[in-house]
Amino acid sequence: MPLYQMFCITKHYPEYKHIRELIRQSATHVMNAGGVVRKIDSWGTRTLPQRMKRQGPYANVGDPRTLRSLNGIMRRDPRVLRWTVLKLADKVEDIAKEGQRLASGTTRSNDIAP
Questions:
Q1: Taking each helix axis from N to C terminus, what angle separates 17-32 and 65-76, rounded to the nearest 10 degrees?
Q2: Where exactly are the transmembrane stretches of this chain (predicted)?
């Protein structure tokens, strides 16, 4: 099962209920498709480095069906300014191996030496 991480920047609302509903909607969508939501973090309200507005749709070639539909939800939701989904690994074991490699201090041949 592939592992993904999603980052989302939303418009500012004085009441948290708008953001809570967006999180509930997104998490429910993932869980209804057989996925698992492991963690939800809020970074609070921040000043953006530049003014942002919503952009038009972009290519979703190769995304699994759940990611395509989640991207559709984010694209249509007026609360969302920007979002991205990062693929962390194909399997949990891949992340564990990378953690062991980093903990042992070994480097791969394509890593840049200091």
A1: 160
A2: none
